[in-house]
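User: Earlier you gave me the apo prediction for this protein. Now I'd like the version with nicotinamide-adenine-dinucleotide bound, so I can compare the two side by side. Same sequence as before, with the ligand SMILES added.
Assistant: Got it. Here's the input I'm using:
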Amino acid sequence: MGQVQIGIVGVGSNGRAFVDCYQKNEKARVAAVCDTDEGRLQSVANETSVQWATTDLNELVTSADIDAISVHTADASHAPITIAALRHGKHVFVEKPLATKLDDCYEVIDLSETSGLKVQVGLVLRFDPLFRGIKQMVAGGELGQVFYAEADYICNYLFHDEVRKAIRSTYDTAFVNAGTHVLDLLRWYLGEPVEVQAYGNQRMSSWPQPELKDDLVCAIYKFESGAVAKVAATWAATCQLAYYNLSLFGSKSSIVRDRIAPAETGGEFEPLPFDRISGHPYDGEVDAFLDAIIEDKQPVIDARDGGNTSIGVLTAMAALHQGKPVKIQTR
Ligand SMILES: NC(=O)c1ccc[n+]([C@@H]2O[C@H](COP(=O)([O-])OP(=O)(O)OC[C@H]3O[C@@H](n4cnc5c(N)ncnc54)[C@H](O)[C@@H]3O)[C@@H](O)[C@H]2O)c1
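And here is the structure of the complex with nicotinamide-adenine-dinucleotide:
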């Protein structure tokens, strides 16, 4: 295969950044952009010189000129667009969360596996040098047996005008939209979670617009390995996001954010030897997706992997609503 012909759906702030990433990458050509917002669509098409701009997704998924669809739309539309694209034989890159309903997670996983098409889920933290370095340490046994972990997405996005617009129009709850990032890190490090209980509250923050999703959800996960972890997400805090509050406590070493305390040196914290790049390493994600298509190999975060993260998150929401622990049915 020569250049992969890409159709990008959703060209808001995230999709617009992906147009640049694909255009910079010589393995791809952005053949079309699609958005339901006609004004935004035209201005992105003009800025990026993409000739084909359409508000009709069906044109893209049925076109013989498109090899792959890249999905950057509202959270609730990720799975329906992915399913339509797979049914028409297109490979798919889909932003997180893969889905906002459990049934959709299973359907995307099954469709991708029976079709042999590539699906990569946009869990970008796995491309960050800090989180990759921690993965190598965990896999190499440097932490010993990890028995407890915490991973939170706690920040003040409700106080940012731009992000607040997307929270209102595009994003699901903080736990489903952003909690996905941090549960994904824990699944990557610790393996599959098997059960979850969750607690939450609403409208307790100082933010005065209760129609915004200012909920806090805090979930306790039990992992197959025996590890226990706490995952919390809210956009209603007054502070900025701080290193995703990732902490891992193992039998040999503990990691708290970007520092490590090995037992053998008396438990003093020292900096981890990895850089964390600022912003989002989308270029690496795009390159990995294009390689999976061109070299016919498994995407780094395939439908099952990214889907199991969404299943873990959505099961926590089910536990919250049912008020009791729920078993997690990962694929
Ligand atoms: N991986 C990350 O770190 C990261 C960061 C930001 C956003 N995201 C994800 O990217 C997605 C988009 O977020 P954003 O911040 O760009 O939001 P946004 O509101 O700026 O943009 C969304 C765009 O999608 C369009 N759209 C919505 N539903 C559509 C549909 N069914 N068909 C066609 N177009 C549709 C909207 O008109 C809008 O232009 C979200 O799912 C979000 O979770 C991921």
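For your comparison, keep in mind: The longest strand covers residues 146-154.
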